[in-house]
Amino acid sequence: MNTVVIVSAARTPIGSFNGALSSVTSSDLATVVIKDVLKRADIKPDEVSEVIMGHVLTAGSGQNPTRQASVAAGIPYPVPAWSCQMVCGSGLKAVCLGAQSIIMGESIVVVAGGMESMSQAPHTVQMRSGLKMGDATLQDSIVADGLTDAFHKCHMGITAENVAKQWGVTREAQDQYAVTSQSRTEAAQKAGFFNQEIVPVIVPSRKGPVEVKVDEFPRHGSNMDVMSKLKPCFLKDGSGTVTAGNASGINDGAAAAVLMSQSEAQRRGLQPMARIVSWAQTGLDPSVMGTGPILAIRKATEKAGWQLSEVDLYEINEAFAAQCLAVVQELGLNPNKVNVCGGAISLGHPLGMSGCRVLVTLLHALQRTGGRKAAYVGFATELEKQSKQLLERMGIISKAVQSDQVGDTQRLQAQVASLEHSLQEEKESQRSEQMRWREILYTLIVVPQEPLRTKLQLVDLSGSECAGTSGVSGAVLWESSCINCSLSALSDVLSALAEQRSHVPYRNSKITHLLQGSLALSVRDFAEFGLWMQSQTDSERHPRQEDCWAEEEVNQQTSKIAQIIKPVNKTALCVGVKVEKMLRAMGKMVFGGFENPKYTPQKSKGDDYEVRKYNTTQWVSTTVSGTEQDEALSTGFRRLFKYIQGNNDKQVKVDMTSPVTCLINPGDGPSCESSFTVSFYLPEEHQAEPPKPSIPEIFFENRKEFTVFVRTFGGFANSQNTREELLKLTESLKRDGMKFKEAPYYRVGYDSPFKLVNRRNEVWLIQEEGEE
């Protein structure tokens, strides 16, 4: 079954009823966000297989509003586009439908989400038979089609009153929940947490175009004094508890996500935001409709094999405070994990959009907080990025391990059990905070008989019991000629070890092609390779010394492997050569060892900063405009990576180098577009005549000799810690009276995403000309 991943997700700001977005149709709002999510994922409109959008209030919107949005976004006519309707869950249902389409093999790339302009929902009148006598009454389509229970003929607010009564939720508790929602949203807005997920909308006006880029509905400064004075809206007999303050709003907006299979994301070199692990839906008595998440969340987490306590974040649509409190109470959830940036009470509730809106907010919250597991009303996601747990448990690949050839699987399993036992004893004897435990990964290539068969077996030695071996036919061999797959495979294996899974299945075998035409296929041969996963405890070692040591170590170990393999036969020798290439490539990616541009150290201020003079060099570059630093850097990196992988006029591969630099030219204001020029240093052999790029967005940059002030920092760089380090560098230079340009500045990285410790990042400020 295809594993479905989400590679990009975004939303428009949410407008108030008859507010800033009221003149924009649902389909136009959807067009804006569809264009944006495709751009974020670097996907062309004609690569989309299908577009699905949730939409509730369709009266007067014209035929198939989703297709209107799809075509307006530049997606060709042959691509199907359609709407689904499940009231508040419509946007999320669209995502589930998109995932099903990919799983069934019907689609490759799906754009799914939701849209709504409640401000443009019309009033209607039934006059198809004419008006004989008397008055004609207009019907509000918002109330009739979106907010009234069709079975009990009551407003949704009454169902919230029913929930409050049945679950014992007081008026005070509802008001306090609403104040908390408003406060969380206020804090999130001020911290800029929504900036990355929001795509601005340009709204025409008589005074010219107006850019709407901030949610309009939140009420900053909300407090219990004001909230407690609001009158109940639905029960006026003194028993009512639901007010305009503790209920969601009537709003406008759109949200969308791009879905594809995990293998498709790997083929494109895309880093998924999340993997869809499970989803669930359930029905219940409409008179208490808001408690549906209780059953759905239980069902979805059960399908995923999760405990409720293991989930890092929950998003529960805040139609009403009473309903959210009932769900939290019934499931025993930690309130600090629920709607951490507020919800529909504070942000607003555009009916067709909301299901996807909470998904978008959830994904970005997980990335920001480093969480791995999340759930929203039966929809579960698990981040592909390595979690803090993985960083704690995994070290760096530092040695290649060999053992005697074995004649059968039983002997291998016995050997594994013995190793596991010895490692367990080592763990007990060396248990300390400074020592992290070793793990062993075995890839076993088996050629038992004709027809040719291949297996990859993963043995996890981290547990107290031997995990055993579990082989699957069709394995991917990590090799330098398929570096994209190599990185993806390494990511999957690290995840498997962290999660204590017994094996990792792979498809699209490279080994099969590698062994075609080999001799002695009837002979039972085993070539066994392993990688020690060991932490690097010597954190004081200088990065350059570490790089030299690592490259030398990899060379020694791969040479040993080659010597072991050579006597076996041509088949194993062929595999050995490829494995040697793989290890050398992985060695560089994990340890460094890339070719660097030459520079001359001028001055050092210890850990504070240093001054370097770089020689004149040639770089290949691309410029990306946007408001999000991390996203722009990712987009630029993918473009350049395709270039060095052969997307050039000579169709040759260019060796990866370091560092990767990003020249950042900030915009005029905090929310204005900035310019990001991402660059790879060209290896010495290509400095004079580099291969010409195949796309106009990539160009060559001849950097003349220049001097920079450099501050180094560790960990995984992001826009936030880069800005913090830049501020520290600026303050140090001003303190020392140095003359420098405050903009543009460089963000610089030296390491692969799969180097987990001793990472090296830098910020550069350019020295003013004439300054010595």
From TrEMBL:
Keywords: Acyltransferase, ATP-binding, Nucleotide-binding, Transferase
GO terms classed as biological process: microtubule-based movement; system development
Organism superkingdom: Eukaryota
Transmembrane residue ranges: none
Top-level taxonomy: Eukaryota, Metazoa, Chordata, Craniata, Vertebrata
Stated name of the protein: Kinesin motor domain-containing protein
Matches recorded under InterPro entries: Kinesin_motor_dom, Kinesin_motor_dom_sf, P-loop_NTPase, Reg_factor_effector_dom_sf, SOUL_heme-bd, Thiolase, Thiolase-like, Thiolase_C
MF GO annotations: acyltransferase activity, transferring groups other than amino-acyl groups; ATP binding; microtubule binding; microtubule motor activity
The keyword Kinase is assigned to this record: no
UniProt family annotation: Belongs to the thiolase-like superfamily. Thiolase family.
Location of the Kinesin motor domain: 455-568
Pfam families registered for this protein in UniProt: Kinesin, SOUL, Thiolase_C, Thiolase_N
Record has ATP-binding as a keyword: yes
